[in-house]
């Protein structure tokens, strides 16, 4: 699956910007910026960008999506774009201690990945592939040049939000990707005593992994990182299923903060 495996930046064009100045300052190349954001006819004149447009800029590095804060941004607006919460954004970016004090050009790690559009893709197909509502993908890509819910072209780089709860995000595996035994399960969580749980179920209801605990690096009110190796207790009986990551209420044992990821076997 063509997921961009590098460090990507989400950047809002400012007055006076050119593709060359953006590439020189942030990274990438002008031809890649043109293709990744469809800055060509029939969408626009070649190489023509306008203030307020949102660009994806992909560079080498470990897979991570970073939002470069613009003068118009608030943390609430940024959280809305990526279908997550301000609490969680602050939790995975501890340098942002006050949601009302953010400055242009600061870099915020966000809950998303970048998908490289292939020949024959439609937005509906992509949403189904990752088990996401179409509206979340549309919201994440608003104000982008060359973006239309009806037509997307090969080579375009789509911003895909990662499902989260208010207190949990899973960065590995990504939704809609292949999951294997002993694969790492990684992310961040805010939980009582730092304990969260996961389980894996296939499409036929077969429990592949029964409820198992994970210890995070910090307990609430902090967000802690977590990483564990996924163990299969039963072999999957279908090609798809769901990974659940969650907590349980210390009062009544009910499931809380559930994150459900569509996965493949």
Structural notes for this entry:
- It is a single chain.
- This protein has helices at 19-26, 30-36, 75-81, 86-92, 123-129, 134-140; strands spanning 7-12, 54-59, 64-68, 107-110, 112-116, 157-161, 168-172, 184-189, 195-202, 207-215, 224-229, 240-248, 255-264.
- It is of the alpha+beta class.
- It folds into two domains: 7-161, Membrane-bound Lytic Murein Transglycosylase D, Chain A, CATH 3.10.350.10; 168-264, Immunoglobulin-like (Sandwich).
- The longest helix has 8 residues, at 19-26.
- The mean pLDDT is 95.
- This is LysM peptidoglycan-binding domain-containing protein.
SSE succession: EHHEEHHEEHHEEEEEEEE
**CATH first level of the largest domain:** Alpha Beta
Total count of domains: 2
The rounded Rg comes to 19 Å
Query: Any idea what the shape is?
Result: globular
Judging by the overall fold, what is the CATH architecture of the largest domain? Roll
Structural class: alpha+beta
Total count of strands = 13
The number of helical runs is: 6
Please report which band the strand proportion falls in: under 5%, 5-15%, 15-25%, 25-35%, 35-45% or over 45%.
Answer: 25-35%
> What order do the strands of the largest sheet run in, or round the barrel if closed?
2-1-3-4
Sheet of most strands: 4 strands, mixed
Poorly predicted runs: none
Query: Any idea of the CATH topology of the largest domain?
Result: Membrane-bound Lytic Murein Transglycosylase D, Chain A
* CATH homologous group name of the largest domain: LysM domain
The share of residues in helices is 10-25%
On the 0 to 100 scale, the average pLDDT is: 95
């Amino acid at each position: 699956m063509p997921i961009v495996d590098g460090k990507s930046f989400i950047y809002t064009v400012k007055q006076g910007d050119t593709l060359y100045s953006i590439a020189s300052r942030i990274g990438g190349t002008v031809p890649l910026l043109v293709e990744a954001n469809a800055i060509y006819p029939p969408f626009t004149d070649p190489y023509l960008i306008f203030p307020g447009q949102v660009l994806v800029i992909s560079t080498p590095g470990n897979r991570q999506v970073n939002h470069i804060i613009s003068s118009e941004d608030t943390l609430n607006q940024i959280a809305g774009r990526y279908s997550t919460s301000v609490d969680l954004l602050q939790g995975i970016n501890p340098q942002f201690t006050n949601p009302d004090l953010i400055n242009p050009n600061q870099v915020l790690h966000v809950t998303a990945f970048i998908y490289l559009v292939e020949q024959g893709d439609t937005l509906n197909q992509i949403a189904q592939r990752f088990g996401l509502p179409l509206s979340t993908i549309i919201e994440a890509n608003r104000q982008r040049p060359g973006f239309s819910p009806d037509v997307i072209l090969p080579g375009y780089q789509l911003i895909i939000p990662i499902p989260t709860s208010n207190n949990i995000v899973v960065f590995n595996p990504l939704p809609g990707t292949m999951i294997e035994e002993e694969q790492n399960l990684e992310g961040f969580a805010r939980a009582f005593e730092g304990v969260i749980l996961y389980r894996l179920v296939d499409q036929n209801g077969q429990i592949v992994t029964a409820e198992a605990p994970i210890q995070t690096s910090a307990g609430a009110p902090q967000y802690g990182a977590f990483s564990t190796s996924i163990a299969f207790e039963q072999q999957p009986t279908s090609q798809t299923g769901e990974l659940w990551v969650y907590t349980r209420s210390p009062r009544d044992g009910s499931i809380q903060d559930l994150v459900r990821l569509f996965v493949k076997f």
